[in-house]
């Protein structure tokens, strides 16, 4: 099993009042990818990190095997969600993949 974790910060121009709505849309659409992307087993979205955090939100996924991370990254459904709900509003992406 592989874990794929991604964290982002909002772009500076994103208004604070819009952030909860944007996080909700990110969470719903990223979670909807389970069953659409081969090898993607689970998706969790961290909308409310502790104040000690360095990023505004995080995606925590599990995939069947290491090769599935590349499949997920290029899958048209994932690209559509990322291009519509995530990339226009975020910056400072950090990713960590590990196998257990």
From TrEMBL:
The protein's name in its UniProt record: Dabb family protein
Coiled coil: none
Organism: Fusicatenibacter saccharivorans
Residue span, Stress-response A/B barrel domain: 2-98
Transmembrane segments: none
InterPro entries associated with the record: Dabb, Dimeric_a/b-barrel
């Amino acid at each position: 099993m592989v874990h794929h974790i991604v964290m982002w910060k909002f772009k500076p121009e994103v208004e604070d009042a819009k952030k909860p709505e944007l996080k909700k849309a990110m969470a719903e659409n990223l979670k909807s990818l389970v069953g659409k992307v081969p090898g993607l087993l689970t998706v969790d979205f961290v909308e409310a990190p502790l104040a000690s955090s360095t990023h505004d939100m995080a995606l925590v996924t599990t995939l069947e095997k290491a090769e599935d991370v590349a499949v997920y990254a290029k899958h048209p459904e994932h690209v559509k969600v990322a291009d519509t709900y995530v990339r226009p509003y975020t910056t400072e992406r950090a990713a960590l993949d590990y196998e257990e």
